[in-house]
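Morning!

This is the sequence you dropped in the shared folder:
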Amino acid sequence: MNRVEKLKEFLQANPDDSFIQHALALEFIKAGDDAEAQKLFEHILEREPGYVGSYYHLAKLLERNGDAESAIKWYEKGMEQAKKAGESHAYNELRSAYEELTF
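The structure's back. Tokens below.
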């Protein structure tokens, strides 16, 4: 059983587990399926806006696919959430990516 199949199996048992969804989205990126990864990241962040790690990966995916405007919005939302959560490392990572894209 490959990683995607295993993660999908885990999701059947825990359908709202953001960690498993995030891991599955990363596997979709590795497999070249950005559309499925984007759906998962967006689903995570709609349901759980404080899941800070997904903002970076979603924004990077959008940036890589030429949607800089959307990427900027997700970086900004991520920075806001990271700041609220006191996650300075995540905030700095998001800010650095944001600045690379906007300056």
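Headline: Residues 41 and 58 are 6 Å apart (CA to CA).

More detail when I'm at my desk.
O.
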